[in-house]
Design a protein that fits this description.
By secondary structure, this protein is α+β, with helices and mostly antiparallel strands. It folds into two domains: 99 residues, Phosphorylase Kinase, domain 1 (2-Layer Sandwich); 173 residues, Orthogonal Bundle (Transferase(Phosphotransferase), domain 1), CATH 1.10.510.10. The protein is built from ten helices and nine strands. It has a six-stranded antiparallel beta sheet with strand order 1-2-3-4-6-5, with no helix packed on it. A hairpin with a 3-residue loop joins strand 2 and strand 3. The longest helix is centred in the C-terminal third of the chain and has 26 residues.
């Protein structure tokens, strides 16, 4: 997958950013999508296959033989993931002395969709999709460690695909250590360097809570969170209890993994939709 030798990292001090319309290997850069502590992300056109892709390019100071070996191990593990809600890794290689991770480009990240109010049934559907993706990974003995709306891509057909498997894990080890991640969506024990499948459950809980309420809970995570009145008004009590359990600050009180969370969401799905529809019709509640 990635041949490791000194030639591949000799240009890592070249940290210039790419420009729109610039040719980069077989890709034509269209725009920069994001910049984080670990990498730049660009939208580009694959001029051979004729498809748009997202190119993640780790900052050159992080591209060391140790990081590449770690990524190679993770990439081999991630290559086993085959699920409709997980975006497969398209390619990982060196282009013009830069390490590049390529994946198919979706319509937009969930973070963009969250800028506007989300209908109840849409929030529930996306909750089930993202939890199904993480549940599958947990069954494959993989934890994501960096679940956030930016890593959840929405496709034109309404499907959500989770990305950055493996990449996020390597980034954490490379940048800071096992306690790194995206602070806004990180479980308390993960911040202390003890991530587990229950940490992913907590992160899912935060994203789900934000989709239903428009509010992202913050540390010190004391229930009830801001937006709770809105959640209670439109969500079935059993759904509220599921979300609250996912967000318990004590890992031992949470669902043991995303599969257990998914099972609970699936059981309450129909009941939650009927409850919300009755509340909406009876009280004028907006969807």
């Amino acid at each position: 997958m990635i041949a490791l030798n000194s030639e591949m990292v000799k240009h890592r001090k070249n940290s210039h950013q790419l420009r729109a319309r610039q040719r980069f290997g077989k890709y034509r850069i269209e725009r920069r999508l994001a910049q984080g502590g670990f990498a730049f992300v660009y939208q580009a056109m694959d001029t051979i296959e004729g498809v748009r892709v997202a190119l993640k390019m780790p900052h050159n100071e992080f591209v060391t033989p140790k990081m590449l070996e770690s990524f190679q191990r993770e990439a081999r593990m991630v290559a086993r993931l085959d699920h409709p809600n997980i975006m497969p890794l398209k390619d990982a290689s060196f282009i013009e002395g830069r390490f590049v991770i390529a994946s198919r480009l979706g319509e937009k990240p969930l973070s963009d969709r969250l800028r506007n109010r989300m209908a109840f049934d849409t929030a529930l559907d996306l909750s089930l999709q993202m939890t199904a993706a993480v549940a599958y990974a947990h069954r494959m003995k993989i934890i994501h460690c960096d679940l956030k709306p930016e890593n959840m891509i929405l496709l034109p057909d309404g499907r959500l695909q989770l990305t950055d498997f493996g990449i996020a894990k390597v980034a954490q080890k490379t940048v800071i250590g096992s306690g790194s991640g995206t602070v806004g969506y990180m479980a308390p024990e993960q911040a202390m360097g003890r991530p587990s499948s229950k940490s992913d459950v907590f992160s899912l809980g935060l994203i789900i809570y934000r989709m239903f309420t428009g509010t992202l809970p913050e540390w010190p995570f004391e229930w009830p969170y801001p937006g709770y009145a809105s959640l209670k008004r439109k969500a079935h009590p059993e759904l509220v209890d599921i979300i609250r359990r996912a967000l318990d600050i004590r890992p031992q009180k949470r669902f043991r993994d995303a599969q257990e969370l998914l099972n609970s969401l699936q059981k309450v799905r129909r009941k939650a939709l009927l409850f919300h529809d009755r509340k909406r019709r009876g009280t004028g509640l907006t969807n």
